[in-house]
């Protein structure tokens, strides 16, 4: 399957509902991030999201970078964090296990640079967590991230099925000139365009053992 996949980490997010111990305990869903899939370079159209195949590998893991902050608020709308500073976008998708089953109640912690390219490392602007709904869906309303020096445009996230391992990864935007120059960029983590101001990416994560 061409959809984006991710390898799990080792920390536990779920468990006793203590937000500080989770990567982000959270709310039920709002438009948010993911669809994985085929490679898209500037000038190429992206294919529709392929169907999930049973036994699919998880979404590839990537570094959290130096900017992850634990204890983010339950929040699926970042547009008020920098009102008037950037274009509004929607990121949404579905979280699935390796058998292609929706993962309800999965925890997602999401963060990215503000439209000016800066990360808020003291507060929680452009940071929040949420839970997928019973169909594994999530959605994020946010502002288009700015360019951080040395990197192409991207969104960070950490995901965890109830009782499962943590997946840390990054999602990338189609049509970005910086994609070819970014040493971390991977085609398998490229979001698909989803309407005029939306993007989609479906995550495949490891579920709880047993």
From TrEMBL:
Family according to the record: Belongs to the intradiol ring-cleavage dioxygenase family.
Protein name per the record: Intradiol ring-cleavage dioxygenase
Lineage, top ranks: Bacteria, Pseudomonadati, Pseudomonadota, Alphaproteobacteria, Geminicoccales
The UniProt record lists the keyword Membrane: yes
Occurrences of domain Intradiol ring-cleavage dioxygenases (ranges): 65-183
Entry keywords, A to Z: Dioxygenase, Membrane, Oxidoreductase, Transmembrane, Transmembrane helix
Any one Gene Ontology molecular-function term assigned to this protein's record: dioxygenase activity
Membrane-spanning intervals of the chain: 21-40
Transmembrane helix among keywords: yes
Organism of provenance: Tistrella arctica
CDD domains: intradiol_dioxygenase
InterPro entries: Intradiol_dOase_C, Intradiol_dOase_core, Intradiol_RC_Dioxygenase, TAT_signal
PROSITE patterns reported in the protein's UniProt record: TAT
